[in-house]
Design brief:
This protein has helices at residues 2-5, 9-22, 27-39, 43-56, 61-73, 77-84, 91-94, 124-130, 134-138, 153-157, 184-188, 204-210, 235-244, 297-304, 316-324, 365-381; strands at 115-119, 143-148, 164-167, 177-180, 220-225, 260-264, 288-289, 309-313, 328-332, 353-357. The protein is built from 16 helices and 10 strands. Helix 2 packs antiparallel against helix 3 (27-39). The chain has 383 residues and is α/β, with parallel strands linked by helices. The longest helix is centred in the last third of the chain and has 17 residues, at 365-381. Strands 7-6-5-8-9-10 form a 6-stranded parallel sheet, sandwiched between helices. It has a 4-stranded parallel sheet with strand order 3-2-1-4. Helix 10 (153-157) links the parallel strand 2 and strand 3.
């Protein structure tokens, strides 16, 4: 565990090997080795180890949860979502669990004429990605209440239709059944449904009004986002964020390009890196900071819809661009999140997205060389 935390995965695997030799039925050693194998890109070995761990310890929710993500990463949606449902019994998710007295909707119970509460459960990007399924549930005849995080209300309400929106923390209306948002693909038996894009949007007049924030066009308009957000007291999620996020320095090769204007969509503490962009290697015209004009995700959407392209780490801004069907290039860590499968090329979730993955853990050099080359080609084409 210490070696894993230090990202010394090869030696972590050696430790697991030694443990398994000493205790061949030690399920946690198989689970730990499987997770390390997965993060090194050895998918078959990872799944084999987790299957052994599950055979030895069938009720271990954490093994189910990880096996679910590994199978989803391979496109094995039915088995993947079934295992993923065990997340609420893991130490990571147990503290976030909502213990409602109303029954959990399993997709089999008739919901026409009943009130169903769907609630956002994880990060903002997860809500933006999975809210595509909410109208499909409403179409089954239920009166749907959708609880979202603060900042999403105005964006989601524009396309919510008959769905009633509630902000997390507000008093909930009465309801008959409930289901967490990221269980919807499981209970509906639904694929990623990229064909629904764009499933979010804003009033076109809002987009036009924001056009005045942009200087006269010199070429492509490209929005940048380089860091996700941290979650207080969530060690596992924050460890992942350290691998998916990067600093503005990584984008420095883009500054050599002509025929493109860059705009910052970076919110939070990492936005302060703009103040010393030149010292971080940014050699071109200054990146124009649009974030003072952002108060919620509807504001961000109006800015993204004025862009030709968004280049982002794996965070909510990337999901927003994909949901709006705006071209977005998503930079993935070496061990990409399960939703991006192998982390490279196209994705079934967003037709407008292209994925770029690290060739080595922690090293974005090759990734940015590829992104810079492709952006230079787009600049020549003028689109």
């Amino acid at each position: 565990a210490a070696l894993y935390a230090l990202r010394d995965l090869d030696r972590a695997i050696e430790s697991c090997d030694a443990a398994i030799r000493l205790a061949p039925r030690f399920a946690d050693a198989f689970k730990a080795r499987g997770i390390a194998f997965h993060e090194l890109g050895h998918g078959d070995k990872a799944i084999a180890d987790l299957e052994v761990a599950l055979a030895l310890k069938p009720e271990d929710a954490d093994t189910h949860y990880n096996l679910g993500m590994f199978r989803l990463a391979r496109g094995e949606d039915t088995a993947g979502w079934r295992h993923y449902e065990q997340r609420w019994a893991t130490p990571q998710f147990r503290k976030m669990r909502r213990d409602f007295p109303q029954p959990l909707w399993d997709g089999q119970t008739e919901i026409a004429g009943k009130t169903l509460m769907i609630y956002a459960e994880q990060g903002l990007g997860d809500t933006l990605q999975f809210c595509r399924y909410v109208p499909l549930v409403a179409a089954l005849g239920a009166d749907v209440i959708f609880e979202v995080q603060p900042g999403l209300e105005r964006l989601v309400s524009f396309h919510a239709g008959a769905v009633r929106l509630v902000t997390r923390g507000a008093v909930l209306p009465t309801f008959d059944l409930q289901v967490p948002l990221m269980s919807l693909p499981h209970v509906l038996g639904a694929p990623p449904r990229g064909d629904l894009c764009p499933y979010l949007g804003v009033d076109p007049s809002w987009v036009a009004a924001r056009g005045g924030l942009f200087p006269p066009r010199r070429g492509l308009r490209v929005g940048l986002c380089w860091a996700g957000g941290l979650r207080p007291n969530d060690r596992i999620t924050n460890a992942v964020d350290a691998r998916r996020s990067f600093t503005l320095d990584v984008f420095a090769p883009l500054s050599r390009l002509s025929g493109v204007d860059f705009f910052s969509l970076q919110m939070g503490p990492s936005s302060s890196q703009l103040h010393d962009a030149a010292a971080r290697g940014w050699a071109g015209p200054p990146i124009i900071d649009l974030t003072p004009h952002i108060t919620d995700f509807a504001d961000t959407a109006t800015l993204v819809l004025n862009m030709d392209l968004v280049i982002s780490c794996d965070t909510s801004t990337a999901h927003l661009a994909g949901a709006l069907d705006v071209p977005v290039w998503i930079l993935n860590r070496f061990d990409p999140c399960w939703r991006w499968r192998d982390g490279q090329g196209d994705t079934a979730w967003y037709p407008s997205a292209r994925l770029f993955k690290q060739s080595r853990p922690g090293d974005w050099t090759d990734t940015l060389e590829d992104v810079t080359t492709r952006l230079a080609e787009r600049c020549k084409l003028g689109r």
